[in-house]
């Protein structure tokens, strides 16, 4: 948001904030390979959830995990760009900040995989035990 908007309030400022947020989201989707991988993975997971007819509470968990993954990847990108803005030279602390932000995404991703396995393993096993071609 522009400096001129810092202390202002109102509907126009609110609309501009949504515009800036959309620009940020589009930047990350277009330019960050990891975010593109997360997006493709999320779409595949949601298709699988539909295919296996997961219950509503599993859908809610999946949506929360996916939103968390997207949000964390966006924050990681913001931290990386901020560090790049502060210094173009190699600095051990700049590297450390980027590595720590990436580690946060990595840890969340590991737990997202565990959650996905816990949600999908029972219906997948049931699917193969029944020998069905379609779960419905």
Automatic annotation (TrEMBL):
Cofactor binding, note field: Mn(2+), Zn(2+), Cd(2+) and Co(2+) support activity to lesser extents.
Gene that encodes the chain: dgkA
Matching CDD domains: UDPK_IM_like (cd14265)
Gene Ontology MF, one: di-trans, poly-cis-undecaprenol kinase activity
Organism domain of life: Bacteria
Name listed for the protein in its UniProt record: Undecaprenol kinase
Places the protein is found: Cell membrane
Active site: 73
Transmembrane spans: 35-53, 59-79, 100-125
Keywords, in A-Z order: ATP-binding, Cell membrane, Kinase, Lipid biosynthesis, Lipid metabolism, Magnesium, Membrane, Metal-binding, Nucleotide-binding, Phospholipid biosynthesis, Phospholipid metabolism, Transferase, Transmembrane, Transmembrane helix
Keyword Heme carried by entry: no
Membrane topology (UniProt): Multi-pass membrane protein
Chain positions recorded as ATP binding sites: 13, 20, 32, 80, 98-99
Gene Ontology cellular component terms for the protein in this record: plasma membrane
């Amino acid at each position: 948001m522009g400096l001129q908007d810092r202390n202002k309030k109102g509907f126009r400022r609110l609309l501009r904030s949504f515009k800036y947020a959309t620009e940020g989201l589009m930047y990350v989707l277009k330019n960050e390979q990891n975010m593109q991988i997360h997006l493709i993975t999320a779409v595949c997971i949601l298709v699988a959830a539909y295919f296996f007819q997961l219950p509503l509470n599993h859908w809610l968990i999946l949506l929360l995990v996916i939103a968390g993954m997207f949000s964390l990847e966006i924050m990681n990108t913001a931290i990386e760009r901020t560090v790049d803005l502060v210094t173009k030279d190699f600095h051990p602390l700049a590297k450390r900040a980027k590595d720590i932000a990436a580690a946060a995404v990595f840890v969340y991703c590991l737990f997202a995989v565990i959650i996905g396995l816990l949600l999908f393993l029972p219906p997948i096993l049931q699917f193969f035990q029944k020998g069905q071609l379609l779960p419905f």
